[in-house]
Amino acid sequence: MNLKTLDWDWDLLSLFDVPRACLPKIKPSSQIYGEAAKALPGVPIGGILGDQHAALFGQACLKPGEAKNTYGTGCFMLMNTGERMFPSTCGLLTTLGYQLEGQKPVYALEGSIAITGALVQWLRDNLGFIQQSAVIETLARSVDDNGGVYFVPAFSGLYAPHWKEQARGVICGLTRFVNKGHIARAALEATAFQTREVLEAMVKDSGVPITELRVDGGMVVNDTLMQFQADILDVPVVRPQVIETTALGAAYAAGLASGYWQSLDDIVENWSANKRWHPAMDHARSDSLYRFWQKAVTRSLDWAE
User: Is the pTM of this model over 0.90?
Assistant: First the structure.
């Protein structure tokens, strides 16, 4: 799809040899497209959104500069950039966020991180480091800091904003002082450091500062990670009442199309926070930690040949 015309791109169709006639007509994200036939017969179908775009909508990130991050096996961050499309120069993807029927499209910047929650799974399944994923937080809280350890989980290269397929995973800063708690903390902190990299790229691309980050996904139940995320970003991190925001976003789009909700204001009012984490770390400390993370990233680059 051509992001400007919101129609199929003739050059790309020609490149991939896809006949235009076999493709459906592109419709807005919120519109009555038809009715269900067999399952729930007669029920209108009124919302079509991709996974992460639905989460952006479900988090009520409806104004430029509002951003959400979904923490799963990987992380997917999207920032609303409004009606303006920002071609990224900082390693992000420019995408269509959503379009309501009869209104102009709303664009977004997207950054994908390959390994976040999957790092905890790797420690559990591949190394037997922990028996259950939830234990990682208990271990991480058994120490005061990371003990100088940094874990760059570039198992299959680095995604946004680096896009370095030759990178491989490294653990840096090991000493005889380091124990399992430091490794656990470094594994959690890797998620927060990678998120800061993407967030800084978004701010640089758009010129719009982010005042808070809305979060969802399985890892947001980890209070230690969420507090560190707020500390390393220096902005509040907010978890909503409903963390299954992808399904909620699709429901919002369908509800607008069917008239259940009358406007975007209704969606904003319906969204509510469950918990907020405010930055509590000294700026010099957080900047020092991030600087060492960036140093660790350089050690992971160009390993594969």
Answer: yes
Please check whether residue 143 is in contact with residue 180, taking contact to mean a CB–CB distance below 8 angstroms.
no
Q: Which of 50, 1, 56 is nearest to 25 (CA)?
A: 1
**What is the sign of the dihedral through the CA atoms of 76, 216, 230 and 79?**
positive
**pLDDT tens-digit readout, 124-164:** 999 999 999 999 999 999 999 999 999 999 999 999 999 99
Element containing residue 213 per DSSP (H, E): strand 213-216
Closest CA to 112 of 71, 167, 150: 71
Which residue stretches of the chain have pLDDT < 70? none
What region does 60 belong to: left with phi over 0, alpha with psi -120 to 50, or beta? left
Report the distance separating Cα 283 and Cα 215, nearest Å: 22
H/E stretch holding 255 reads helix 245-258
Contacts of 135 (CB under 8 A, 6+ apart): none
- C-alpha 89/C-alpha 85 separation (Å) is 12
Task: List, in order, residues 6 or more apart from 94 with CB less than 8 Å away.
Answer: 3, 85, 86, 87, 88, 107, 108, 109, 110
User: Residue 167 carries which side chain, given as an amino acid letter?
Assistant: A
